[in-house]
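Journal club side-thread
Mid-discussion, someone asked how the predicted structure for our own chain would compare to the paper's figures. Pasting it here so we can look after the session.
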Amino acid sequence: MKQIATLIKKDFMLEWRQKHTLYGILLYVSCTAFLIYMMSGQPESRVWNALFWIAQLFITVNSVAKSFLQEGEGRARYYFTLVRPAHYLAAKMIYSAGLMLLVTLLSLGLFVLLLGNPAQDVSAFILIAVTGGVSLSVLFTFLSAIAAQARQNAALMAILGFPIAIPLLMILSRLSLAIVASVAQEGWGELLLVLLGMDVLIVVLGLILFPFLWKE
């Protein structure tokens, strides 16, 4: 835990020193929400729900994808001599999840401010939005690790990520649709368990496979 905490602190300090990266993420989120507002106004609840999750997907890619891709080869070799690969991946996932937690709340706030608030239960929708943001961040952090080690950068991450992200987004859309559209949703609890199960599976696979990738 000490190694993981140190690595998280290191990522936070690097992010704070390179404030232009953080400001770029905030600008991207703000521009995305404003552009959707300019093009669609305040859409009805189903469209609002679809636009929100599509925006979240691309916000996640732009916010989290750099977690491993920004690390140079020399720096990665240096970390290899200091920490275990599982600890390194866990720290990256935790930091990315924390970053996406803040970005998701900001994105949701802008959507509510500009596009209206169709949610019948605001607290439940916030819970689903936060869970979805964390789930997407975990997925793309793992894919970023694969892409960085394969030296194919963002192209490989996009090829691997979107087929996996689509079912994840469909589950999140169905979960949130029951709240924003007052649609009776059967199996709501089962869908949530499937979502959490996918998150656990991604984390476990990452912790198992990443050490072999790092050795390469």
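Post-session note: The chain has a mean pLDDT of 80.
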